[in-house]
Specification:
The complex is a heterodimer of chains A (about 425) and B (about 400).
Chain A: E1 10-14, H1 19-29, E2 33-39, H2 73-76, E3 83-87, H3 92-103, E4 107-110, H4 116-119, H5 124-130, E5 135-138, H6 155-161, H7 183-206, E6 210-213, H8 216-221, H9 225-234, E7 251-255, E8 262-266, H10 270-279, H11 295-300, H12 302-313, H13 318-327, E9 331-334, H14 338-342, H15 345-349, E10 354-358, E11 362-366, E12 372-373, H16 391-397, H17 402-410
Parallel strand pairs in A: 1-2, 1-4, 2-3, 4-5, 5-6
Antiparallel strand pairs in A: 7-8, 8-9, 10-11
Helix pairs in contact in A: 1-7
Chain B: E1 9-13, H1 17-28, E2 32-37, H2 61-66, E3 71-74, H3 80-91, E4 95-98, H4 102-112, E5 120-125, H5 140-146, H6 149-152, H7 167-190, E6 195-199, H8 200-205, H9 212-218, E7 235-240, E8 243-248, H10 254-261, H11 282-294, H12 298-306, E9 312-314, H13 318-323, H14 325-330, E10 333-338, E11 342-347, E12 352-353, H15 369-376, H16 380-388
The chains are: A alpha/beta (about 425), B alpha/beta (about 400).
Chain lengths: ~425, ~400
């Protein structure tokens, strides 16, 4: 790994879907040595065994030649910079592999529903016997302790349970139109890194390993004072406001020229407003004496101002509108889709995107990293791991002989492919 | 037992949501966090809500939540004098987290670069300091718009929507906390410092729930929703007796579990709901699911179906979250006695590490300026001079 901030830290990942695997990728980006223990012989939710009917089928990489479970975009996006072993941890031989893995690890993190690891024999009490110096992080949706132990969820459920979903969405449509999002997977992945470092520091302080109970919903909750403070301070239930800010005019998303093209625009100060007003042909609206020249006056003229901006934005594509508003000194951006991101002059000037080679998907343009560093910047050293791609390599490091590894494969304890359902 | 970040000194500068969110976790887990703020308090202290809707620089909801346990120094970093003080702070710190206009940030980094043993740095900006967008001013919504995630957060063909207030900025802060913690580890374990740069758009577009990788591989934008899907169901928000519940139970084994959970296990053998035929019979399925949901509250649906292993969750509003049985049992919210603002309710620890973590009151603007300047060795006359010059 090029990045060296966590060099020397060995981490074992037992997670599926997004939050845990993305957290593992971030540890890898930072230079840790991460081994992902892939679910086997059951494939994880992000590794479909066949192309699904309808829209879900299109998560598979176009033009790729390989099994569906190796070319699924929803899996690739959260898995890089780690090695992959596929082990049936329910089998006797698999249990022994897990023992050896945990025994040599600095960090063991898992994202199954609370209680699963205990049933598999890898709860904290057992793990600390195996390795008294390991830092273990369990990151179920609602946390380890509490009445919701064993409950299952994706990030969309946590967003709903944390109160965030209730304030997103269109003010004039019923809540069934609130789009589902997986934001807590992003915050959970980030929090894992911070929790791991906190755990490693605790180990330095105490000389012993430690257990961290990380509830993904609590990780999201602390980032939502905008949801809770309205209630705790003023006993008001926060409402769905769409893109409106009650105290800033203009602040919205406007239709631009072209198909489904939108641009966000805001002027938070009189100075920003003066530039914007002149651009949209209403310079007078920012002159002393005009009611719209002041912040309170603009709050009263919200509809008139929004209407004038919408007239202006309809005249050109979103990126062109955003450029002109920015040049005029106000805030604006196109609401880009993925193609728009790839076309961003800024991201291209910064050479943010990565071209990544993978055995089955071939050469693809993927995103860049969340951060860079002046020296030893993160690099895409390992593409998304194939199922069991590093079985031999990792097991040899754990002390298994070639014959033993062959025997494990023979018994189906380890593997490098999933059995497909009969057609 | 010590707090895990005990003994570390972290300096933040900028007064933004992202820097405050970045250092909060360090502060709550024991680090000494010095909050260097603009003389006017910066943008985050001005964010709503305020008790009784009275704006107050020390009582905003974001400030009280994100500045817990920090010490505040009010300093004009646009001046060489202000930057000298910050440089002295950074020379005695382990980590400096800053979000400042590009030219000010570069001046700070350049000045503090000459100091031996100086802090590692995390520099936050919307777009990074090179490229054509370097000087662009963004807010939470426009940064989010550039990340692709606002585009996805829409009903097909309708206006894309922002998330809750400052939610993307808080994520950028959490990104800085993650990278910053790794830099702290490198510095304390190996004695090597690091300089990290975070562009907010990249932090948002590069993490999960950006669908860029899926698009790049599949070659198409997956369709966005238009209410609950009638093709792959149940997924999305469904009405029940006292509100809505969110399902993610369209796939197996969850659909089979759901049928069992609502007392109709036979539906999994019903040709209307098997395999691809299911996409044609949403209305038929709702004759079973709709009445079952209508007879139950959110929490009843949630607990009854979770017993069957169904992916379902209640759609809660803020007051419901505070009294949610899991949140109450875990103590997910804590009360902090905040001088001047009374008792405030804040979210508890982001992760549980024995009994570490503490939430202490947030500082008043500039509350610790004199104490900190004393610690740095500025004489009283020098402090008066800085004050008269409008630097502190």
């Amino acid at each position: 790994m090029s990045s060296n901030l966590l060099t020397g830290i060995r981490a074992v990942e037992a997670c599926e879907v997004w939050a845990g695997p993305m957290g593992g990728s971030l540890l890898g980006d930072l230079g840790a040595e991460v081994v992902k223990v892939e679910s086997f012989p059951r494939s994880s939710m992000t590794r479909p065994l066949a192309a699904a009917a309808g829209a879900q089928g299109s998560v598979l990489s176009q033009g790729a030649d390989g099994p569906a479970y190796e070319i699924s975009g929803i899996h690739h996006l959260a898995n890089r910079n780690k090695r992959n072993i596929a082990v049936d941890v329910r089998s006797e031989g698999g249990t022994a592999v897990m023992h050896r893995l945990i025994a040599q690890a600095d960090v063991f993190f898992e994202g199954y529903s609370a209680g699963t690891m205990e049933r598999l024999g890898f709860g904290w009490e057992r793990v600390r016997e195996i390795n008294p110096r390991v830092v273990m992080v369990s990151m179920p949706g609602w946390g380890v302790e509490g009445p919701y132990q064993g409950y299952v969820t994706l990030g969309s459920g946590l967003d709903a349970g944390a109160g965030h979903a209730s304030i997103r969405g269109y003010p004039d449509r019923d809540p069934s139109y609130i789009p589902g999002i997986f934001h807590s997977d992003a915050t959970g992945a980030l929090a894992l890194v911070t929790a791991v470092v906190a755990g490693l520091r605790r180990r330095e302080q105490s000389g012993e390993g430690c257990f961290i109970d990380m509830s993904q919903i609590e990780v999201l909750t602390w980032q939502l004072p905008g949801v809770f403070a309205e209630w705790t301070m003023n006993q008001r239930r926060p409402q769905r406001l769409g893109n409106v800010d009650p105290h800033i005019v203009p602040h919205g998303c406007y239709r631009a020229a072209g198909d489904d093209s939108w641009v966000v625009i805001a002027a938070e100060t009189d100075r920003q407003w003066a530039g914007l007003a002149a651009l949209i042909g209403h310079a007078r609206w920012a002159k002393d004496g005009d009611p719209r020249a002041s912040v309170p006056g603009r709050l009263r003229a919200r509809e008139e101002i929004d209407s004038a901006i919408a007239t202006f934005t309809a005249t050109a594509p979103a990126d062109e509108i955003a450029d002109r508003v920015q040049e005029a000194g106000a805030i604006a951006a196109p609401t880009v889709d993925s193609a728009g991101l790839l076309g961003s002059p800024q991201l291209n000037a910064r050479e943010w995107f990565n071209t990544v080679e993978h055995r089955y998907t071939g050469s693809r343009i993927l995103n860049g990293f969340l951060w860079t560093t002046t020296e030893h910047p993160p690099s895409w050293d390992r593409a998304c791991g194939l199922v069991g791609e590093h079985n031999d390599e990792v097991l040899v490091e754990l002390g298994y002989s070639g014959d033993e590894i062959a025997a494990l494969a023979e018994k189906g304890v380890i593997g490098d492919r999933y059995e497909l359902p009969s057609p | 037992m010590d707090q895990p970040f005990e003994g570390l000194r972290v300096v933040e500068a900028g007064g933004t949501v992202a820097v405050a969110a970045a250092t909060k976790t360090f502060s709550d887990f024991g680090a000494d966090v010095l909050k260097v703020e603009p003389l006017d308090g910066g943008v985050m202290r001005r964010m709503v809500p305020f008790p009784d809707d009275r704006p107050h620089i020390d009582r905003g909801g974001f400030h009280l939540a994100f500045d817990t346990g920090k010490r505040s120094i009010a300093l004009d970093l646009a001046t060489p004098s202000g930057r000298e003080v910050l440089t002295a702070l950074a020379a005695n710190a382990d980590l400096l987290v800053l979000e400042l206009p590009p030219e000010v940030a570069e001046a700070v980094l350049e000045t503090s670069g000459d100091v031996p043993g100086r802090a590692s740095t995390v520099t936050i900006s919307p777009h990074g300091f090179d490229g054509p967008f370097r000087e662009r001013i963004e807010n939470d919504m426009s940064m989010f718009a550039w990340s692709t995630r606002m585009h996805r957060h829409a009903v097909e063909g309708s206006e894309p929507l922002r998330y809750g207030p400052q939610v993307p900025s808080a994520q950028v802060g959490a990104t800085a906390a993650a990278a910053g913690s790794a830099a702290l580890w490198r510095k304390t374990e190996h004695g090597e410092r690091a300089d990290i740069q975070i562009a907010g758009v990249e932090a948002l577009a590069g993490n999960v729930d950006s669908w860029f990788v899926i698009w790049s591989m599949a070659g198409v934008n997956l369709p966005r929703g238009d209410g609950p899907s009638k093709m792959a169901y149940p997924a999305g928000n469904y009405a029940c007796a006292d509100g809505y519940v969110l399902f993610a139970a369209q796939g197996e084994p969850f659909f089979t579990r759901l049928c069992a959970g609502i007392g109709h296990p036979e539906l999994t053998e019903d040709p209307r709901f098997m395999d691809e035929a299911r996409a044609m019979h949403w209305d038929d399925f709702m004759t079973f699911l709709g009445p079952w949901l209508g007879a139950r509250t959110r929490n009843e649906v949630f607990t009854e179906l979770q017993r069957f292993g169904v992916m379902v969750a209640p759609v809660l509003e803020a007051p419901d979250v505070l009294t949610d049985p899991q949140a109450v049992a875990r103590g997910s919210f804590v009360e902090v006695d905040q001088p001047g603002a009374g008792t405030t309710t804040l979210a508890g620890p982001p992760f549980r590490l024995d009994d570490a973590w503490q939430a202490r009151p947030a500082p008043q603007l500039g509350e610790h300026t004199a104490d900190v300047l004393d610690e740095l060795g500025y004489s009283r006359d020098e402090q008066i001079a800085l004050f008269r010059a409008g630097v502190i």
